[in-house]
Amino acid sequence: MAGNRTFTMIKPDAVSAGNTGAITKMIEEAGFRIVAMKKLN
Questions:
Q1: How confident is the chain (41 residues) per 10-residue block, as mean pLDDT?
Q2: What is the pLDDT of residue 1?
Q3: What ranges do the domains of the chain cover?
Q4: Are 14 and 23 in contact (CB under 8 A)?
Q5: Which of 16, 17, 28, 41 is the most exposed place for a label (fewest CB within 10 A)?
Q6: How far is CA 23 from the centre of its chain?
C-alpha cells in the first residue's frame, strides 16, 4: 500500500543560520517521517 509523499526544502539562509536540526525536529513532531535527506552545495 503506497502512501502520500511530501517534498520539503529548507532554504539556504536557514541552513547557514544553523536551523536545520530545529526544522527537522518540527517536521518529525508534526507526524511526518523523513525517508531521505540530501544536502546540495
A1: 82 94 95 91 78
A2: 52
A3: 1-41
A4: yes
A5: 41
A6: 7
Tell me how far apart the alpha carbons of residues 8 and 21 are, in angstroms, rounded to a whole number. Answer: 14
Structure-block grid coordinates of residue 11: 532554504
Say what the pLDDT of residue 2 is.
65
Distance CA 30, CA 12 (A): 22
Question: Which value, to the nearest 10 degrees, does the dihedral of the CA atoms of residues 7, 13, 17, 21 take?
Answer: 0
H, E, C per residue of the chain: CCCCCCCCCCCHHHHHCCCHHHHHHHHHHCCCCCCCCCCCC
Phi, psi at residue 25, to the nearest 5°?
-60, -45
